[in-house]
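Suppose a colleague, Dr. K., hands you the sequence of a protein chain of 111 amino acids and asks what its three-dimensional shape might be. Before reaching for any lab equipment, you can write down a predicted structure in token form. Begin with the sequence itself:
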Amino acid sequence: MTLHDTERELAEIKDKLKPLVEREAVLQRLQRHLLDVRWVAANKVTRDDVEMSEGDDIPYFSQTSTFVEWMKKHPTNKRFVEWNSRVYFKSDFLQGGLPYDSSAGLSEVPE
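The predicted structure, expressed as tokens, is then:
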């Protein structure tokens, strides 16, 4: 087998795998969405119960630590916090944790 033969065969394999790789990506996005929906439902998350990291009367935060300090100075009874469009347990966030498996996309939280 020559170098040209291996390059050709690798290109053929790549072409055959392309639909599978694309399907895998679609399924992974769907899985993340469904996990997010399940997490929101299981934890009874509502928008009213989420401390937002941006909006009216909220300063810009470039780091989680500055947002945490601001929240400590402006306490609320909200159980969740939003950071970069993901919703986390406020208790985890205040301790510096951003566990991806214990969070959900803000878009999955009902208005």
